[in-house]
Amino acid sequence: MRTSTALVAGALSAGSVVSASWYGGGNGNGHGSLYGESSLNHTCVLEPTLLSCSAATYEPGVDTCCAETFGGLVLATQFWNTYTVLQDEGQKLPKNSWTLHGLWPDFCNGSYTQYCDLNRQYDPEPSPNTTNGLPSGTPVPPYKGPSIATFLKPFGKFDLLAWMNTYWVNRDGPNADFWGHEFSKHATCFSTFDVPCYGPSYKKHEDVVDFFETAIMYYLRLPTFKWLKQGGVTPSNSTQYTLSDFQGILKGKYGATPYIGCSGPRFNTTEAGKGSSDTGRTEISEVWYYSHVKGRTQEGRSVPVEVSPTFTTTCAKTAKALWYYERSDGAEF
Ligand SMILES: *[C@@H]1O[C@H](CO)[C@@H](O)[C@H](O)[C@H]1NC(C)=O
Ligand SMILES: *[C@@H]1O[C@H](CO)[C@@H](O)[C@H](O)[C@H]1NC(C)=O
Ligand SMILES: *[C@@H]1O[C@H](CO)[C@@H](O)[C@H](O)[C@H]1NC(C)=O
Ligand SMILES: *[C@@H]1O[C@H](CO)[C@@H](O)[C@H](O)[C@H]1NC(C)=O
Ligand SMILES: *[C@@H]1O[C@H](CO)[C@@H](O)[C@H](O)[C@H]1NC(C)=O
User: Fold this and answer.
1) Which parts of the chain sit beneath pLDDT 70?
2) For residue 322, which phi and psi values (nearest 5 degrees)?
3) Residue 227 near ligand 1, beta carbon < 6 Å
4) Which PROSITE patterns match (predicted)?
5) Domain count, the chain
6) CA of 168 to the centre of ligand 1 (A)
């Protein structure tokens, strides 16, 4: 969701936003196409398995449906929130678990693009409201159709829907609005989730279901709460932690240092941080795990990648400056 107003303030982007409009145009089938893919069947098992961001993916003739092209730095992102605002309406948080934020296709150089296919715009509150976040971008019209949750019904995916309502939770808004946001802002920018990739027998919204399941696959392999607990770091409203506690534990478990995001007051505005030059924020709220992927993102053959050294965190770096807060009473299932 990054730079959203609905969720955690202070989530900054790793790099600059690039307009989606530089891509080659459509494929003539009425769906936007990032790379002008053919309407062939894209039988990827017959294609070489290329590692995203490697030179081979930039060679001519690569089937962009079978290798993640351009957006090959894949980020599996999660939230730690202590409440949802809507807990009294039953929108709660899962016990002993971070929640799913999304799966994002950053460019190999760390910048990214967003809202790449306005034919698949299901976000009721586009954020930003143009494709590049600037007045010069293409406006992203608010979606007014049936909720993206209804797209799962023809596929009979009620188990998926129930899971998503438990682990993919919005803050101060319906969960499905958040899913629509994540799909349209980010999933439409993966080459492997492009509509032509589903071949001639594409079923409407198959790409949406596929994206949800893929984002969940990555999430389930990254049990942040459990990993931190195994490293001795659990939510506490009395003990503060150090950034390197989180980085060290998660690097040990994942194999590469993730980005750690914080919200809340800046350290130098807190009592403990008076006079300090540390302006990092003090409440743990996000983690982004980076990877490259072999073949289709959907297959989950990912290789961990270190966070960019120029954008590792928004958190305070002073020892014992960070709160990993316990959830509010009544905020959990
Ligand atoms: C990063 O890569 C993208 C896609 O290749 C390109 O459009 C963009 O200009 C690059 N950005 C920088 C800062 O090099
Ligand atoms: C986007 O939002 C800004 C700030 O609210 C507003 O000034 C601008 O008109 C909006 N642009 C579009 C295309 O809706
Ligand atoms: C592609 O798939 C369609 C059915 O979805 C089939 O009719 C067609 O023969 C296939 N083409 C090739 C080259 O396999
Ligand atoms: C915190 O640091 C920022 C940046 O140096 C500064 O603008 C701000 O005034 C500081 N706040 C306090 C309360 O010291
Ligand atoms: C812990 O502190 C946070 C931040 O003040 C608060 O939102 C939450 O309700 C607290 N949890 C408990 C169990 O006291």
Assistant:
1) 1-33, 35, 37-39
2) -105, 140
3) no
4) RNASE_T2_1, RNASE_T2_2
5) 1
6) 30
